[in-house]
Amino acid sequence: MNSENVKLLNKERLDDFLKVLFRDCIVFGPTRKGNMLLFDRIESIDDIVLGRGNTMNSVKDALFPQKENLFNYRHGDEGTEIQKPSAEEKGMVLFGVRPCDAQGLLLLDKVFGGGQKDPYYIDKRSKVAIIGIACENPDPACFCLALGGGPCSTKGSDLLLIDIGDKYLVKAGTPKGIAFFEEKVFEDADDEALAKASLVEKKAEESMNRAALGEAGIGEALEKRLEKLFDDPIWGEVTESCLGCGVCTYLCPTCHCFDILDETVKSTGERIRIWDSCQFPLFTRQASGFNPRPSSKERFRQRIMHKFCYLPKNENLPGCVGCGRCVTKCPVNLDIREVIKKISLREAT
Amino acid sequence: MSQLIHEIKEAARDFLRDGEDRTVIGFEQGSLPLQSRPCFIRKENDLERLVWNGFCKNNLAGYLPKRKGKIAIVVKGCDSRALVELIKENQITRDQLVIIGVACNGMIDRNKIEADMDGESIVDVEEGEDVLTIKGTNSSKVFDRKEYLYDHCKVCTNPVPVIHDILLGQRDSNTPQAPVNDTFSDLEDFSALDGKERWKYFTEEMNKCIRCYACRNACPMCYCPECFVDASRPQWVGKSTDLSDTMIFHLMRAFHLAGRCVGCGACEQACPMGVDIRKLNRRLQKDVMDLFHYKAGCNLEEKTPLATFRTDDSDSFMVEP
Amino acid sequence: MVYAAEETFACSIDSVTRMADTIRNKGLNRVIVAACTPRTHEPVFQAALREASLNPYLFEFANIREQCSLVHMNEKETATEKAKDLLCVAASRAALLQPLYRISYKIIRSALVIGGGIAGIKAALSLADQGIEVNLIEKNDTLGGLARKIPETLEGEDVQGFVDALIQNAAENSLIHIETNAEFVDFSGYVGNFLSVVKTGKEGALKEIRHGVTIVATGAEELKPREYLYGEDGRVMTLLELDEMIEKDNNSVKNCDAAVFIQCVGSRNDERPYCSRVCCSHSVKNALKLKELKPEMDVYVLYRDMRTYGFKEDYYKKASDQGVIFIRYQPEDPPDIHAIEEKGKSFLRLTATEPMLGYRLEIDADLVCLATASTPPAGNKPLSQMLKVPLNEDGFFMEAHMKLRPVDFATDGIFMCGTAHNPKFIDESIAQAEAAASRAMTILAKDELTAGGPVSQVTTWKCSGCGVCWTVCPYQAISCGEDGISKVNEALCKGCGVCVSSCRSGALDLRGVSNEQTWSAIRALLG
Amino acid sequence: MNESGQWKPKIIAFLCNWCSYAGADLAGTSRIQYPPNIRVVRVPCSGRIDPFFILASLQNGLDGVLVSGCHPGECHYLSGNYSARRKFALLKGLLEYVGVEEGRVQFSWVSASEGVRFAKVIEEVTSHIKTLGPAKILVKNIPGGSFDVSAHP
User: Fold this and answer.
1) How many domains, in total, are found in chain B?
2) Does residue B275 sit in the same domain as residue B180?
3) pLDDT in tens, C450-468
4) Closest CA to C254 of C286, C300, C291, C282
5) Mean pLDDT in each 10-residue stretch from start to end of chain A (349 residues)?
6) Rounded CA gap, C385 and C475, in Å?
7) Chain D partners of A82 at a C-beta cutoff of 8 Å?
8) Under an 8 A CB cutoff, do C464 and B228 touch?
9) A178-182: which pairs have CB atoms within 8 A and are 24 or more residues apart?
10) Hey, which of A336, B81, B167, C364 would disulfide with B262, CB 3.0 to 4.6 Å?
11) Residue B68 belongs to domain spanning
């Protein structure tokens, strides 16, 4: 392992490092709101909460907020005036990001920064640094391994902190990450530390629950199978208990559908972008009143198809990172892992 | 417990054997500890999936509106009250239903338990009469069952189903068999606060809301073909997470449930953000009781209060110059 | 906004004509007038729209006189701000106005009268005299109702002769079709177009009757009491039974030495809180009859309050002049009655406390007459459910408004008269029958009625069939249609909009005062 | 606000056509003076008032809401006001419960013959809302609504 992209951070120096971040940047990270652990903007170091599992919401909220002002407008006698929101000058740090969430950003990058460039996302993305933290004890709902990630994966992170006791082993995943090593809070990593780190990784991976997914893999095979199963009765079977709410999509680190609307007061107003969900009937209802996805069956199928068939095809990344939020938070525990399992066991009819 | 599960399975079996086009709606073990979930059974050999435990929280009545065919449904006290209202509102007919009532000892609030696990994730649970033994990744803890019930279970006044074809489960002598009136003592402290403080509270709560509509979709009484919040021309409520819009969504939803809310807590269970939605419904339940002497879901004859009136209803809230 | 003009007297004929011309010439399709109140002047300006062959519902009124200039005389600036706002509201509503159309439909120029007592027959005759075909249905095998049991009125008019004449006229009138032994089994339709099904005759053949109006005249009955040995002792009878006795064998009456009337039997108590109105006069009438047959007979009336209305008071006086003794009793201390055998004599002993003196009185009588309550027939309840019209707490039919609509029901085209409404004297029943007939004529005089316009409408796919609108509608204008979805009967809907505000799923809306119009009216007041 | 920058409450009044609106007309023809802060919206019956009308009024920043109908037993539509009264009682309670100031939303019965009473009601409601100050609770603030005019001459 090449020493210039691996360092050590003594836990006593963590605050010094954070001070630096707070000095130069707007910091987002895991923090308590009531009895809830949220990933949100943080004003002071003391508000950061580590080692309490993953946050209720995903980190996408920081770069792709649920409600975003695109511009204000006014219809006057000389046509319409536009007022753009003033862009944030300061840099941004997302601290304490779980590897799964970090990996999720890679997909958002493709969606908002690929063929179609979204200025609002790109602007924030260009200013943001992702500092991840490894999962020492994953939740029973986690399945990141099945999606090419892992409790200590650096995918999508500029820096990744791995807790090895009194120190963090800090891996840099990108040049942006390496740049942080300029700060004198870091020390060089020794082999012992590296060994400890890989042990943490091993332990974490072993502790992961593989039962729910079983042998089912996520990849080309699933992609092909899904194409065949589009009209299969399985969709009706697996969605019978679905309530049709937006929990799964709104908490998902990769779901990125949105709606754009104007809110007007007399001749002035604002144009906003808000999250939308493929699970809502309005998502596809047409002006005529006709809805090509009239029920949960079609909507849920779209969600699965999009994640494991269309996105892999178009962006060659799945729309899932195995964070398990949709599994734990679904009001009826409709488990995406079990659905994938059922599909992979299903003989195409 | 196992005896009870057996009885539920037998009741369901008899029902399935009775004829064609029949569905049993009950609970099965979920994919995670502390989770049971709805299941739909049509074949006798699937009956083994049926479970009954302290995590059968969902209100299965929500699956009934406009459903065809014969249905056997497993209900707790609160679920049965929802059935009563749904039958009154023509969403399902009594003769479609075989109601397997289970006297309920309250359902356990997963979030409360998780909050007290110090971030340790839960791998297994053992449910006793009065205690729960929760195994975490590297330790195990014992919880007092009563302490960790859902708030709405703690104030439940009739855990025994009000209508049923079969009634199962132990009822410890002090659980009332028939509906009794609610004291709403849980509202006293909050109502005592002054308006500004109450507004502050609701502001904080509603700011958590992400407008995923899990509350609405989990609610057995929210069966409108189109919810007002999805309507256009006029679009009464904005769709963003703007505080005012969110507040009005919840206010209006609560109002639409006035005299209909059976207090099953499905909304709060479904909410991923832990918004205290019931605070609104509880108040309306109280007012409906105080003003119109009506408790939702208690009998099939009484008209729901906003579908009727009395000429001597109170005027006291009106301006008298 | 393509055209604005100022008029000094906007409602004057020439300016209205000018308005019509402008609408035509400029091809206007929405019109707003900012002036006085729509309550008086909307029709005037709507006429201008009609004149210009523009749908009259495309009109909006801003009331800046009664509700602005006249009430804020000394606040020019703020009053002007307000006037502007009121215009904004009008404009925002106008933009969303839709043309509304009233559909007209033929009415069936015939009536159904339910009940063949005096009120029913009288109403039938009155309608027939005006050329209306009438179906008169009676549940018993003869017409005449309760009046058949009343020989004459207090004033001494011959009731039987009168009823015979009525029945004969009805029977001879070619426009009146009488059905006796008839049972009312089904009812549907709306004003001008009802359909009733009646089971007729002994064999109970079903007969369909189509009619434009319905008159309820089901009458009342005399209560057969449980108290005072009634039914146990032959000497205890009701007023009507005494009438009959006096008519048929006055010898047994003449044999009596003492008779006692007890008032308010079964009335003005918890079970029947109402006063039966006629019984005081009836008792006085019979008391006088007894005195006439046998002046030396002791006649007593035990009463709570003597209510001999108006000039009937004269007969009360006459009775006391003739020695009829009126003794008051308190409801909490009613008279006792015992059948007594003494020294080979058998009589009824009544004991009562005279409240003013506090004395306990004993009266030995050979005849006791109970002035019992008039009660609604048991048939009222099922009938009211079939017709969907209300009964009051006492079980009599309830009018739409005691003062403003005394013989109407809330439901258009259904009227009532006689003792079906509450206990009355014959003359009152007759007056009410004539009233009901003339109210019915206000509909039957027309060839067609119009319906629709500003009424409720259902967006079927939004309706969940929860039924809240079926119950809140004051006119039963909304009912359960195919596959459980609500449907509005435009002929019955009055456009109050109660159903709209009660509909959670937004399936109902009110034409002319739509949700969207109100929403934009509110928005117009912004800023 | 008016030119002088001094706050004047704006109160929306939903009046039923047959009683309260007529009462308002009578107040007018009898030249009874009352505060000019109300903006009348005519509805057929107090029973037509959907709770949304009231919430929308508050959300759109109106300082007060008055709903007025026929006295009990005098409803032109027989029972419209009875059905309405139940809705109002619950809604008023709910709004005050979440923190909407008492008196921000008010209800009254005014008949066609009560011009004086109508004026009194308006007096009372207006003066009460003046003491409450401008509405804030439930008001929706749209940034575009406060479009920075100075920045864009």
Assistant:
1) 2
2) yes
3) 988 999 999 999 999 999 9
4) C291
5) 82 95 95 91 93 92 95 90 85 96 97 94 95 92 94 96 95 94 92 95 90 84 94 96 98 98 87 97 94 97 97 95 96 96 81
6) 13
7) none
8) no
9) A178/A4, A178/A5, A180/A129, A180/A131, A181/A4, A181/A7
10) B81
11) 2-109+149-307
Cβ-defined contact of C70 to D84 (cutoff 8 Å): no
**Number of domains chain D contains:** 1
> What secondary structure does DSSP assign to A96-161, as a single string?
EE-HHHHHHHHHHHHHHHSSS--HHHHHHHHHEEEEEE--SS--TT--GGGGT--TT--TT-SEEE
CATH of the domain at D52: 3.40.50
Cβ neighbours for C314, distance < 8 A, ≥ 6 positions apart: none
Of B126, B148, B170, which one is at a domain's C-terminal end? Answer: B148
Candidates A59, A56, A15, A19; CA nearest to A36 is A56
- Domain assignment present for residue B83? The answer is yes
Mean pLDDT of C477-492: 93
Q: What is the pLDDT of residue D153?
A: 28
| Rounded-to-integer distance, Cα B318 and Cα B156, Å | 33
- Give B-chain residues touching C463 at CB under 8 angstroms: 225
What is the rounded CA–CA span in Å between residue C424 and residue C277?
6
pTM equals 0.86
- ipTM for the predicted complex comes to 0.93
Nearest CA to C225 out of C371, C340, C338, C423 is that of C371
In a domain, D33, yes or no: yes
> What is the least distance, in Å, from the CA of A265 to any CA of chain C?
7
* Cα–chain center distance at B249: 19
The token pair at B255 is 């109002």
Burial (CB < 10 A; 0-12, 13-18, 19+), residue A20, is: middle
The pLDDT tens digits of the residues spanning D117-128 come to 999 999 999 999
How many CB contacts within 8 angstroms connect chain C with chain D? 132
Q: Which runs of consecutive H residues, i.e. helices, occur in D7-114? A: 20-29, 51-59, 80-98
Q: What CATH number has the domain spanning C222-375?
A: 3.50.50.60
What is the average pLDDT across B55-73?
97
Q: Determine phi and psi for A67, rounding to 5 degrees.
A: -130, 125
Residue D125 placed within a domain: yes
Is D117 inside any structural domain?
Answer: yes
Kindly list the domain boundaries of chain A, sorted by start residue: 3-206, 220-345
Q: Domain C453-511 carries which CATH code?
A: 3.30.70.20
Those of residues 54-83 in B touching chain C at CB distance below 8 A are 65
Asked if the bond preceding B234 is cis, omega within 30° of 0, the reply is yes
Q: How far apart are CA D45 and CA D81, in angstroms?
A: 7
Distances in Å between the Cα of C410 and the Cα atoms of A23, C469, C471, D84 are: 76, 17, 15, 19
* Same-domain pairing of B270 and B233: yes
CA dihedral C81, C86, C89, C90 (to 10 degrees): -140
**Paired tokens of A295:** 């029920």
* Structural domain that includes position D64: 11-139
CB A137 within 8 Å of CB A207: yes
Give the distance from residue C524's alpha carbon to the nearest chain D alpha carbon, in angstroms: 10
Output the CA angle A246-A251-A256, nearest 5 degrees: 80
CATH topology of domain C110-220+376-448: FAD/NAD(P)-binding domain (3.50.50)
As a whole number of angstroms, the distance between CA C470 and CA C485 comes to 11
In one-letter notation, the amino acid at residue C517 is Q
Closest CA to D51 of D42, D63, D59, D61: D59
Tokens of C370: 């109970």
Residues B67 and B206 in one domain: yes
Q: Which residues of B23-54 are buried (b: 16+ CB within 10 A; e: fewer)?
A: bbbbbbbbbbbbbbbbbbbeeeeebeebbbbb
Would you list which residues of chain B are within 8 Å, Cβ to Cβ, of chain A?
30-33, 35-40, 58, 62-63, 111, 115, 118-123, 137-138, 204, 208, 210-214, 216-218, 226, 230, 238-242, 269-270, 272-274
